[in-house]
Design goal:
- By secondary structure, the protein is α/β, with parallel strands linked by helices.
- Helix content is 40%, strand content 15%.
- The strands form three sheets. A seven-stranded mixed beta sheet has the order 2-8-7-6-5-3-4, with helices on both faces. A four-stranded antiparallel beta sheet has the order 9-10-13-12.
- The longest helix is centred in the N-terminal third of the chain and has 15 residues.
- The mean pLDDT is 96.
């Protein structure tokens, strides 16, 4: 059988988590919290199940949840969205991104991605029959060179995929970045697939800038969000996509044949929780910044170069003063020898540059972060 994705194997996240388990190592590789979600949310899920919310929801998502999401967008982004025609609940942002790409691009099209980029983007682009065009972020700052992006646009360019706060680097878009993006997509009549799953995890007084807040971007964008990241329930695999009515209609045509619906009791639980505590997402930045600061401060005596993450729950560490080994080899060696697992960022590039970074997840207990930092300081 001829593979449609001949270059795709097991993801780095699966491999490193398996290696961490095999070596009984501290797993700071895969991005999931090692602490519980809010008790009220967990109780809401149990209640939803026991109250009988266990059959198919409407394809676009439970109306009660879409109404709450419209309120969230008004509260946190200052935008009004129609819950019936612009919000679609999906079984995870990855599925939403896949459906957006499949609905929008086809054979012969090109889609610009910014390297390092999350590993689900290019496979979806290839399966749609299009080609991914890679534009590297600036070294070390991981900012977008919008002139380089403009230079990569051709008559075949159909879409650009953006991600802020950015996985794996923790970089965040500024207002000027969104203005530059807006100018390009207007000039070249492009669509945007915006991965904003870490929207509430932005630090040091920064604000998250969503494509939904810029009218000329909103009219041509799919914006993707994740309950897993916001509520520390990555295993619930539920999120949502916001897009204008015409794009939403096309996304739903694909979504109905990929998963049809997201999990009903999870939807009901999130709707009930948000109705009771609509400001909960606003508490996350301080919570995670404290963890970031704990981890970075504990590494202050190490030989790593540490530039505090601007967003997400990932921290890059520059190990260039410690080793010349490739990042993928070093992270495996340290998992086996030191008992601490991380992620190499070279795997997120089409053509990795000469740099020495490993990604560590700080969505972990303070005890684990302090213990991990102690090990790293001894290198």
């Amino acid at each position: 059988m001829r593979s449609k994705l001949p270059d795709v194997g097991t993801t780095i996240f699966t491999r490193m988590s398996a290696l961490a388990k095999e070596c009984d190592a501290m797993n700071l590789s895969q991005g999931y919290p090692d602490f519980e979600a809010p008790q009220a949310l967990r109780e809401a899920l149990a209640k939803a199940v026991m109250d009988g919310h266990n059959q198919y929801a409407p394809m676009a998502g439970l109306p009660a949840l879409r109404d709450q999401l419209a309120e969230q967008l008004k509260i946190h982004r200052g935008v009004d969205c129609n819950p019936d025609t612009e919000i679609t609940v999906v079984p995870g942002a990855t599925e939403g991104i896949f459906c957006a790409i499949m609905a929008s691009v086809g054979h012969g099209d090109e889609v610009i991605v910014l390297d390092p980029c999350y590993d689900s983007y290019e496979p979806a682009i290839k399966l749609a029959g299009a080609a991914a065009v890679h534009v590297a972020l600036e070294a070390h700052s991981f900012r977008v060179d919008w002139n380089a992006v403009a230079g990569a646009i051709t008559p075949r360019t159909r879409m650009i995929v953006v991600n802020s706060p950015h996985n794996p680097t923790g970089a965040t878009f500024s207002h000027d970045d969104l203005i530059s993006l807006q100018q390009l997509v207007q000039q070249h009549d492009l669509l945007v697939c915006s991965d904003e799953v870490y929207e509430h995890l932005v630090y040091d007084g920064r604000q998250h800038h969503s494509v939904l807040q810029y009218p000329q971007l909103r009219e041509r964008s799919f914006a993707h969000f994740s309950f897993g990241k916001t509520f520390s329930v990555t295993g619930w695999k539920t999120g949502y996509c916001v897009a204008p009515p015409a794009l939403t209609a096309e996304l739903r045509k694909v979504h109905q044949f990929v998963a049809f619906v997201a999990v009903t009791p999870v939807q009901q639980a999130v709707a009930d929780f948000l109705a009771t505590d609509p400001q909960y997402p606003a508490t996350l930045a301080n919570f995670y910044q404290q963890k970031r600061d704990l981890f970075c401060h504990a590494l202050s005596s190490s030989r790593f170069r540490v530039s505090a993450s601007g967003g997400t729950y990932f921290q890059l560490l520059d190990y260039s003063e410690l080793s010349d080994l490739p990042d993928h080899q070093l992270c495996e060696d340290w998992t086996r020898k030191l008992g601490i697992a991380s992620i190499p960022i070279s795997v997120f590039y089409d053509s990795p540059p000469q740099q020495h970074y490993l990604r560590f997840c700080f969505a972990k207990s303070d005890t684990m972060l302090a213990k991990a930092a102690e090990v790293l300081c001894k290198i």
